[in-house]
Amino acid sequence: MIRRQVAIVGIGQTAYGKALPATAWELAVEAVTRALADAGIDPADVDGMCRFAAPFEPVSEPMLVRALGVGELTFFAQAPLGGEALGAVVAHGAAAIMAGLARVVVVYRALSQSTGGRFGRADRGGPGGPAAADPAADIVVPEEENRSFAWPYGLMSPGQLFALWARRYASVHGLSDEDLTRALGTIALTQRRYAHDNPAAMMRDRKLDWDTYRRARMISEPLRLFDLCLENDGACAYVLTSASVARGLRDDPVYVLSATQTLSPYREPMGIYTDDLIELFSPATAERLFVEAGVTRDDIDVAELYDATSFMTLRSLESYGFAAQGQAWRHVIDAGTGLDSPLPVNTHGGHLSEAYLHGMNGVLEAVRQLRGTACSQVADAAVALVGAPAGSAMILAR
Amino acid sequence: MAIIPGVTDLTRPYWENARAGRLVTQRCRNCGRIWHPPLPACPHCHGTDIGWHEVSGAGTVYTYTVVRHATHAALADRVPYVIAIVELAEGPRLVTGIAGCAPEDVRAGMAVRACFREVAEGVTLPYFEPAD
To answer: What angle do CA A323, A325, A326 make, to 5 degrees?
Structure first.
C-alpha cells in the first residue's frame, strides 16, 4: 500500500488557452520547471518520469530530459488509455519510489490541440485519425480496438459516446429530458461559477446562465454545447517523492493515500460493449481505493472528477460511491456540487470551464485544496479524491 | 465520401456476410457461445475453433444519440443522424445506425430488425429499422 509513503511536493502549470503561441514541448518544459521550483528541487536531481502514453502525450521523455538538463533518469513509464492514465501515473511513480527505482518522479501532461489533435474533430488529428488526403476519397477505418465496427456509423468522437452513456443512464433510471437537463445544467453552471473565481480558468469571464445553457445547440443529444469540455493548449506537472524527502522540502506535502488503475473485459475507458454500459468499473474497484487509503467516503472533503462531459461528473458521484446508483442526478439538483454542498466537486471549474488537461489540472487543484491555497477553498480540506470515469483514481491527504 | 471499415482476416467474414444481407456473429464450435465484436479465441472456454453464426436480426435499441454536430468533414452532410447500440435477441450488442424512421422517433427499448445499406461500392453496413 502507498498510504502516506509518497507525497506530491510540487505543482506547476502554464497558462491555458485556445491557441497558445508555444509548442507542446515548450509548454511541458514550463510546467515541469514551475513544479520543480515549487518543490525546491533542481531539475538535475530528477531521476524518474511518468506520463500519459502516446499518442496522447506529444512530448517524449528524451525531449524533456534534454531541455531540463536532467542528470539521469533511472525510471520512466507510460500509462495507456488517455484519461485512464490519471491514477495510473501516480501509482507507477509511487511504486517506483517505494521500490527504490527513483527518488524524484516528475509527472507531466502537455496539450496543443490547436496544432495537434483536436479531440472533438476526428478529421483534425483527433482520436478519429487524419483526414483523407483526397476529400472525395473514402475513409477506410483501420480495425484497431474494434473501431471499424463503430466509426463507419459516425461514432468518431468521445462526446458522441458519452451521449450514448447519458441516454442510457436516463432510460435506466427513468429520468425525463427535463430531469437530465436540470442535473447536467446544474453541474455545468456550478463549475462555471467556480471558474469565475479562478484566474487561470479559460471561462473566468464568460457568464453562463440557465437560459444560455438551455438554448445552446445540441452536439449529440442529450448533450449540449456546455455539457462538453473545452479544447485547448496548456500543460500541467507535479513532482512525487518519498514522504521522508518531502518533509525535508516543505511543511505542507500532500500525501498519496492510494492510487488505482483497473481493466477487465469490456469494462474499459470509452467502453462500448460493457455488460452495463454505464458501469465502467466495478464497485469493488472503488472500494479498493478507499480501503487502501484507510479512509471512508465521509472523510473526502473535496472531489475532482474527470469531466470530459458534465455527465461524467454526475455518474462518477455514483461510481465512487458518493451517491446511490441512479440517485446522483437528484443529489446534484437538490444539494449541488458547490462550496456549500456536502461534497464540493471540480472546484477549479473542471474540464468544462477551467481547461482540458486530461484530468491533470484536477490533481493540481486537489493539491491546492489540501495546501489551503485554492481559489475556491473548501474549509479545512484534509482529504481529496481525484477520479476518472473508468476507475483510475487517487486519494490524497495533507 | 464514405467512411468504410478496414477489413482484416479476423473481420472479413462479418463484412462479407453483411454484403450478402446476412448478420452474423462469431460462435465457438466447442462451447457454442456467440459474441461480438470478433475475438481471436473464445473468451468462455478458450477454444480457438471459431465459426460464424447467422443471427435473427431482431433486436432492441439499448441506447442511442441523435448527432447534430458533425465531428468529421465526412459527416457534414449526414447530420442529424442516429448512432445506436442495438442489443440482439441472441444477446450481443453492436454499434449501428437507425434507418427507416426520423431521428426524433427513435426510442430506447424500441424493437428493431436488421437491414443493410450499401455505403460504397461493394461495402455494406448492417443498419437497423423499426420492427413494425
So the answer is: 100
Beta bridge partners, A242, equal: A6
Is there a domain that residue B33 lies in? yes
B 68-87 residues inside an 8 A Cβ radius of A:
68-69, 71-75, 78, 81, 83, 85
Is the pLDDT at A130 greater than 90? The verdict is no
CB contact under 8 A, A272 and B85: yes
In angstroms, rounded to a whole number, what is the distance separating the alpha carbons of residues B76 and A241?
Answer: 49
- Chain B, nearest residue to A144 by Cα: B6
Number of structural domains chain B divides into: 1
Structural domain includes residue B7: no
pLDDT band at A128 (very low <50, low <70, confident <90, very high): very low
| Structural class in CATH, domain A6-115+230-397 | alpha beta
Closest B-chain CA to A147: B5
% of residues, chain A, pLDDT over 70: 97
Which residues are CB-contacts of A228 (< 8 A; sequence separation ≥ 6)? A120, A159, A219, A308, A309, A352
Q: Is B121 at the interface with chain A, CB within 8 A?
A: no
Instruction: Please name the residue of chain A whose CA is at the shortest distance from the CA of residue B39.
Output: A146
Conformational region of residue B21, where left means phi above 0, alpha means psi within -120 to 50, and beta covers everything else: left
The predicted-structure confidence for A187-222, as pLDDT tens digits, reads as follows: 999 999 999 999 999 999 999 999 999 999 999 999
pLDDT tens digits for A257-305?
999 999 999 998 889 999 999 999 999 999 999 999 999 999 999 999 9
| pTM for the whole structure | 0.96
CB < 8 Å to B73, chain A = 123, 131, 135
Interface test with A, best of B3, B64, B82, B112 (most A CBs within 10 A): B3
Phi–psi pair at B16, nearest 5 degrees: -65, -40
Among B95, B106, B107, most A C-beta atoms within 10 A, so best to mutate, is: B95
- ipTM, interface predicted TM-score of the complex: 0.98
Residue B59 belongs to some domain of the structure:
yes
Coil vs helix vs strand at A94: helix
Percentage of chain A lying above the pLDDT 90 cut: 90
For residue range B15-72, list pLDDT tens digits in order. 999 999 999 999 999 999 999 999 999 999 999 999 999 999 999 999 999 999 999 9
Q: Do residues B62 and A278 lie in contact, with contact meaning Cβ atoms separated by under 8 Å?
A: no
Query: CB B72 to CB A156 under 8 A?
Result: yes
Among this protein's residues, is A266 annotated catalytic? Answer: no
- The answer to whether residue A213 is catalytic is no
In a domain, B55, yes or no: yes
Name chain A contacts of B77, Cβ cutoff 8 Å: none
**Owning domain of residue B104:** 12-130
Closest CA to B65 of A171, A356, A16: A171
Domain ranges for chain A: 6-115+230-397
